[in-house]
Give the backbone structure.
Amino acid sequence: MSHKQFIYYWQKWLPPILVRAAVRAVVIICLTVGVLGILGSTASMSNAQAVFPSSFAANAQLVSTTKLIQDEQTPLKSTALNATVYHSPDCNCCGGWIEHLKTQGFQITDFSTPDIETVKQKYNVPDNLSSCHTAIVNGYVIEGHVPADDIKRLLQEKPNVAGLSVPQMPVGTPGMEMGNRKDPFSVLSFDHKDSVAVFNKYPSS
């Protein structure tokens, strides 16, 4: 091969060879950087967990505690607030108590009956705990002007009792409001053996 031919082939084939080599080098560099980046991010997460283990544990505990609180609140929210109320057609304060329950989210089935004593006997309301109306809420007997909050507590705690009572008609109970006057009264629980206990107390004002 003459000197001129060598120069000709050198100028013709050398640039494409250099271009291909440069492309391969760029591809190899990009792949290397990508792999190192993935490994670096994984190592960073592992290092963060190692340096701040309490933070990750605290976050997990917070999620667990939040779920527990939600689970504890669920039973009360899922309990239907339905009340069947029996009362005399001549009793105005019974209507006031029914309105009190409605404002607290209860769905009312209202029965007006001239023979309210038969209803009390049917549900075994003790004579010394009787009042002007009788209601049935989720199987519990509610006698008299029992505040809605006490009924909700009863439904949440589900004690082994027959029901609750506010005997007679104390002034200041729901449905028996008379201005600012409020007599002291107690909410009593009773069972099927006529055992009575104080469920809640309200002072005078």
